[in-house]
TrEMBL record:
PANTHER family: (4S)-4-HYDROXY-5-PHOSPHONOOXYPENTANE-2,3-DIONE ISOMERASE, QUINOL MONOOXYGENASE YGIN-RELATED. Residues 2-91 form the ABM domain. GO terms for molecular function: monooxygenase activity. This is Antibiotic biosynthesis monooxygenase. It comes from the Bacteria. It holds the Pfam family ABM. Keywords: Monooxygenase, Oxidoreductase.
Length: 94
């Protein structure tokens, strides 16, 4: 299993639109065969900070996700909503 945590800092005026776009992306991502978890979480003390918690069966599923229409549409939609560039880290379940 591979876990990806993607960290996003969103402009305050874009939060609602970001949540809408990201929720749709998460719902579509959960339907992919190699995805076992895909959640959007919001930081309690900094409500413009979000994390995507993504769990994949293997690296092939990660790469497949990055080519889906819903991911590419989400990426383009939220690009200008970000206050800072998003960053992510991949983890392996031990």
């Amino acid at each position: 299993m591979i876990i990806t945590l993607a960290f996003l800092d969103i402009k305050p005026e874009c939060v609602d639109a970001f949540i809408t776009a990201s929720t749709a992306n998460a719902q579509a991502s959960r339907q992919e065969p190699g995805v076992t978890r895909f959640d959007l979480v919001r930081q309690l003390d900094v409500p413009t900070n979000f994390t995507l918690v993504e769990e994949y069966r293997d690296i092939d599923a990660v790469e497949a996700h990055r080519t889906t229409e819903h991911y590419l549409a989400w990426k383009a939609t939220v690009a200008d909503m970000q206050a800072t560039p998003r960053h992510s880290h991949r983890y392996q379940i031990l």
